[in-house]
Amino acid sequence: MKRRTKTTFTWLIIWAIILTSIAGLSFFYFDFSPLILFLATVNLAAFLLFGWDKIAAGQGIDRVPELVLYFSVVCGGGIGALLGMNVFRHKTRKSSFQFVVAAIFLVQLALIAFLISKEVCCQSFVFFKL
């Protein structure tokens, strides 16, 4: 049996590097609000993590821990995670994993809808900088 050399902490560091790299590049090339840049970056990173985990599962190399995949969803990468699950056909047989991802995503959508309805953070949802 192959020994796992990467820990959850290592994968969180890798995820953070991907996230900051994409955010840094997109900040210089696009004129979107910071919230949109953040959400796009987190979703892209979550999508890439699911793709990498699918490749790793097929080749028998070190996998991305589920905790890191959940963390990417909690940080706002629900759309990227759901797309990654469907595009790569990854974690689609594990109903408990799908339930947790969907539940986190629905809670986030409900929170956003609540905040918008109360006009608490409408300025944050501006798509372009003024």
How would you portray this structure in words?
The chain is built from five helices and no strands. The chain has 130 residues and is an all-alpha fold. The chain has one domain. The mean pLDDT is 76.
Short description, anyone?
The protein has 130 residues and is mostly helical. Helices cover 69% and strands 0% of the residues. It has one domain.
Percent range for β-strand residues? under 5%
- Name the helicity range: 55-70%
Sketch the major β-sheet: none
Weakly predicted, low-confidence segments: none
Class by SSE composition:
mainly alpha
> What's the N-to-C terminus distance?
56 Å
Topology, number of strands: 0
What is Rg?
16 Å
Mean pLDDT: 76
Question: How many individual domains?
Answer: 1
SS summary, helix count: 5
Question: Which H/E pattern describes the elements?
Answer: HHHHH
Shape: globular
Could you give the topology of this structure?
Elements: H1 8-29, H2 34-59, H3 66-74, H4 78-87, H5 95-117
Helix pairs in contact: 1-2, 2-4, 3-4, 4-5
Structural key phrases:
130 residues; mainly alpha; single chain; 5 helices
